[in-house]
Structures are given as structure tokens and as C-alpha cells.
Amino acid sequence: MQFIDTMNFIASSFDGLFSKEVFIALAAAYIGARATSKATIRAHELATQKSKNDEREVTCNTLRLIRAELVAAWDIYMFEYGRGLLLVSEDAPYIMTLPIGDNPFPIYDSAPPCLANVDPAISAKIVRIYMRTKGLITMIKLNNADCQVVYNAGRYATQSLVNKAISDGVVIDEEGARKLNEYHTFYVEQEAKQLGMGGTANGMKLMTGELGELLSEIKKEIDKLTSNAE
Question: Residues 6 or more apart from 130 whose CB is under 8 A from it?
Fold first, then answer.
């Protein structure tokens, strides 16, 4: 039975209440409204799903950027500073400076809203590694400041010897210059010990070891999470 025939049949049953034309118009309006409602619901579902997909993609991309930021920072740190630090004997000062900018982690600093969408166990590790890294940076800056103090002290002490030699009419030959360099190095090391730079170096080494292990874990977990989302 065709749709219009069905409507006519139903309408004839209500002939005493209203005309067939009115009934068919009401039925058509109802069917149209129902179809529109289903289309609206479906459109809303699709929009919601797209929003979730977009949010998941932004989160995964942010995690990839965080991974890249951490790896790049770690590689630079180890190449320019960390490897030498780990070679220093226990309690020995590390008389070496590492320039650090005011905002070394721009990606992480803008990422926390996205971390709310990540598994709490992973986001906790990411927050921890950045907190520990910023703690290490504070120690490096402290060590940098102490290095400047001992370098200045060494230069002052060496220059004092040079000035005395000049006033005494002593000519500083190649051997004398070598001895002055040795004196400068010795003086700087002694000043570093007096400032307690050995304790700072010990702390930086411990933190470097912890960060290396934590970074290895985070890299694996981010790789797994982002690869599953593809």
C-alpha cells in the first residue's frame, strides 16, 4: 500500500472528527518534524564526535611537542654540560657555566589544559619531570653564579701576582705564564671548595640521573599513547 493510500485509509477512520486533507496535513507535519528532529540529533552527535576527535588530535600533537621539547633540551644539556658533570668526582666542584634563557620550556608552559585529557599517571610524570628539570635549572644557575665568583677571585689573585712582578721588574716569560695559569686554576678550585660547590655538583648529578630515567619512561609512554591514537 502506498503512503498516500495509507494516509487516506487512516483519515477515513477519523472522518467524523476532521477532513482527510487536514489529517494528512497534520500527519505530514508530524513526520516532517520527526525527521527534522532525527537529523538534528544526528548532526549534534556528529558535531560532538568531531569535537572529541579534534580535542584528541590536539592532545596527541601537544604530547608529541612536549616529547620533542624534552628530548631537545636533554640532548643540549648532556652535550654541553651533563656529560662533564657526571665525570666529576664525588664532592668535587664543577667549575663550568651553562647559559639558560628565561623561558626554556614554552611548549609545556602553554600545555597544562591539554594535560587534563591525558591519563593521570602519564600527566603526573610529565609534570614531575618539568618540576625536577626546573629544579635542576635553579641549581645550574646557582652554580653559574658561584663560578663567576671564583673566576673573578682567580683573576684578581693572578693579576695581583702580575702587578707585583711588574713592580719588581720581573719579566714574565713563557714558563712564568704557565705557572700563573696553574696558580689561577689552583686558586679557583680552592675558592670553589670554600663556596661548597662540591655539594651543588653532587645534587646536580643525582638529579641528572633521575631525569634520565624519567625521560626514558615518558618517551615510551607518549609514543605508545600517540601511536594508538593514529
Answer: 105, 108
**Cβ atoms of 24 and 11 closer than 8 Å:** yes
Q: The cell 528532529 sits on which residue?
A: 37
Residue-wise pLDDT for 218-228, tens only, equals 999 999 888 86
Q: What pLDDT score does 17 carry?
A: 46
User: How far from 6 is each of 21, 23, 34, CA to CA, in Å?
Assistant: 13, 12, 18
Q: How far does the chain reach from its first CA to its final CA, in angstroms?
A: 49
- Other CB atoms within a 10 A radius of the CB of residue 9 amount to 11
Mean pLDDT, rounded, of the chain: 82
Q: Per the confidence metrics, is the pTM higher than 0.70? A: yes
Are residues 71 and 120 in contact, defined by beta-carbon separation less than 8 angstroms?
no
Name the residue among 76, 86, 99, 101 with its Cα closest to residue 201. Answer: 86
Q: What is the DSSP letter of 15?
A: T
* Cβ atoms of 111 and 63 closer than 8 Å: no
